[in-house]
Design a protein that fits this description.
- This protein is mainly α.
- The longest helix is centred in the middle third of the chain and has 44 residues.
- The chain is built from 22 helices and no strands.
- The N and C termini lie far apart (70 Å).
- The protein has one domain.
Length: 637
């Protein structure tokens, strides 16, 4: 067990080290660009935001790679012991995200005393998040696809079988994609929501109310997450999902009570409370809807499993349809949250006040981020624990416990992605409001051909971005498949268990592919908004962001939920339904799961970071666009 967990930890930390070396070049370049074009204070905040995002991912993954083997060992005693350790490991990531985010913004505001300057911190967090999410997603899915297609489909060996050369890379990928990647994702959402609320609050109320209120709310959120984590307790016969939900519900109730008191004390009314509440409620509902469409406890996943009996084609068709259906209700509730938050803060008479209400809704949704990330990071720890149990040859009853925890982890991961996507929509909108205020943009005129051009460019960007990341997974997976086949062919003793496979080669393939392929999508998200703002002007950039938010949120929900549904349909069949493991339905479901892997863990989750990064780039470079925006249009006119 120690040996296998050592391989996983070594691979994960090696990947992070190489990734951070590549990112250091990007950080230095952007630092000088910001310093020269905007100001050096903003550039300094960018450096701090980048470093804090890196630290959150590093600390979280360091603990996750220790907690996996301890969870597997605890499963030899009881389910509850294993659950407690897996969740505790995830809680480190959760508390690092909210702790470093709030601490970084707070200290920088004390130093500089300006909400406009600390937007650089948000840009640093968003930039690192995109690279971490895309790089981690490519890494984990290249390994996962290779391990599944050659191991399970072609060779007929179980998942996490130590004879599979890609199995260590697959387990490493769970950490770099779902711990470091998701942590960085919600870190930048959390930071972005606080910064947008500070910016709009300062414009509305001046320094005291506008600045103190979001800091107090975020601080209460940290405390509520800590208290909520203490309620994650289960028993041997209960569903672990129930224990994890208890923590989330307790955190949410504390936020509701505290925000009502805070709203009355600070503003002498409950308007801010209603805005916060509707955001928090929308987040919880989106999480439940995501569970409904991706959990095997509900009819949608069972429908995919049923369709798998007629082959891979019907598996793919039903999964795509369910992903499309799943995008409807979350958007409806996001719209309700936006409208209620806007109008309950007097948006009808004071637009800026209404926009502040939307930013409070985003902050309310993200107020329990510590608990959300903890629950999400629990998933890959439980997944790794199952892999270690399988590879170590632990008794069947141990694997039964880890499988149960892992199955819940798949659902919590899907809920985490749904939450991240929902929060992205509100955060991007509130950051967009801050940008509009910064450049003096009061309306977006869709009849203006320049603005409409921006909308169309923004709408197509998530598709182009998704294509790049999906293709990157395909390229890396091809190399992984060839390597696994080569090892099986050249060393027949691997299949008999007499010889160990070369895990290191597979880890190197995933690492090299991830680092190479993450560069273009990451740079694209930063460069395109700047070019559009400079060449076409501030209004066209506003259209670009609007188009990207609409198509990006829809694509993200569709891809994340399709992938999650395919994954759990496969696991549902593996419980013995429709012929169980090795059946025709199972092989079809493995194909569906393989298609869904880059959907749910690479392209889909990256969309929400893309739209937030583009929005914060627009906000940071807003002073530049006010002076130099619309160069091409000026020449044409």
């Amino acid at each position: 067990m120690k040996e296998i967990s050592g391989y996983i930890e070594e691979g994960a930390m090696a990947f992070l080290k190489r990734e951070y070396k590549v990112l250091s070049v990007f950080i230095v370049v952007v630092f000088f660009v910001l310093g020269i074009t905007i100001q050096w204070k903003t550039a300094f905040c960018f450096i701090i935001g980048s470093i804090f995002s890196i630290l959150a991912g590093y600390f979280g993954m360091r603990v996750a790679t220790k907690a996996n083997v301890r969870t597997a060992n605890a499963a030899r005693k009881s389910q509850n012991c294993a659950l407690e350790i897996a969740f505790s490991g995830g809680a480190v990531m959760g508390m690092c995200v909210v702790g470093l985010g709030l601490f970084g913004i707070g200290v920088l505001y004390i130093i500089f005393g300006s909400a406009d300057i600390i937007t650089g911190f948000g840009l640093g967090a968003s930039s690192i998040a995109l690279f971490a999410r895309v790089g981690g997603g490519i890494y984990t899915k290249a390994a996962d696809v290779g391990a599944d297609l050659v191991g399970k489909v072609e060779s007929g060996i179980p998942e996490d079988d130590p004879r599979n050369p890609a199995v260590i890379a697959d387990n490493v990928g769970d950490n770099v994609g779902d711990v470091a990647g998701m942590g960085a994702d919600l870190f930048e959402s959390y930071v972005g929501s606080i910064i947008s609320t500070l910016t709009l609050g300062a414009a509305l109320y001046g320094d005291f109310k506008g600045i103190v209120f979001p800091f107090l709310l975020a601080s209460i959120g940290v405390i509520s997450s800590i208290i909520g984590s203490l309620f994650v307790k289960g028993d041997e016969n209960s569903n672990p999902q129930k224990a994890l939900k208890n923590g989330t519900y307790v955190s949410s109730v504390i936020i509701l009570i505290a925000s009502s008191i805070l709203s009355k004390y600070m503003f002498n009314n409950f308007k801010a409370f209603w805005a916060i509440s509707v955001g928090l409620l929308a987040g919880v509902i989106i999480g439940q809807l995501t569970e409904m469409y991706t959990s095997a406890d509900y009819r949608h996943v069972k429908k995919i499993a049923h369709q798998s009996q007629t082959g891979p084609a019907t598996t793919i068709i039903s999964g795509i349809a369910i992903g499309m259906y799943s995008s409807v209700l979350p958007i409806v509730f996001i719209v309700f949250a936006i409208l209620i938050a806007f109008f309950c803060m007097n948006g009808a008479t004071n637009v800026l006040m209404g926009l502040y209400g939307i930013s409070l809704a985003a902050l309310g949704m993200l107020s329990t981020t510590g608990m959300t990330v903890a629950v999400d990071a629990y998933g890959p720890i439980a997944d790794n624990a199952g892999g270690i149990a399988e590879m170590s040859g632990l008794p069947k009853e141990v694997r039964t416990i880890t499988d149960r925890l892992d199955s819940v982890g798949n659902t919590t991961a899907a809920i985490g992605k749904g939450f991240a996507i929902g929060s992205a929509a509100l955060t991007a909108l509130s950051l967009f409001a801050s940008y509009s205020h910064a450049v003096g943009l009061k309306t977006i005129d869709l009849l203006d051909p320049i603005t409409l051009s921006g909308v169309l460019l923004g709408g197509v960007l998530p598709f182009f971005f998704g294509a790049l990341s999906m293709e990157a997974v395909g390229k890396a997976a091809n190399k992984m498949i060839e390597e696994v086949r080569r090892q099986f062919k050249e060393n027949p003793d691997i299949m008999t268990g007499k010889s160990k496979p070369d895990y290191k080669n597979c880890v190197d393939i995933s690492t090299a592919a991830a680092l190479k392929e993450m560069i273009v999508p990451g740079v694209l998200a930063v460069v395109v908004p700047v070019l559009v703002g400079l060449l076409l002007g501030a209004a066209a950039l506003g259209g670009l962001i609007a188009g990207a938010v609409v198509s990006g949120v829809l694509l993200a929900i569709f891809m994340a939920n399709s992938g999650g549904a395919w994954d759990n349909a496969k696991k549902f069949i593996e419980t013995g339904e429709h012929g169980g493991k090795g059946s025709y339905a199972h092989k079809a479901s493995v194909v569906g799961d393989t298609v869904g892997d880059p959907f749910k863990d690479t392209a889909g989750p990256s969309m929400n970071i893309l739209i937030k990064l583009m929005t914060i780039v627009a906000l940071v470079f807003a002073p530049l666009f006010k002076v130099f925006g619309g160069v091409i249009i000026g020449l044409i006119k």
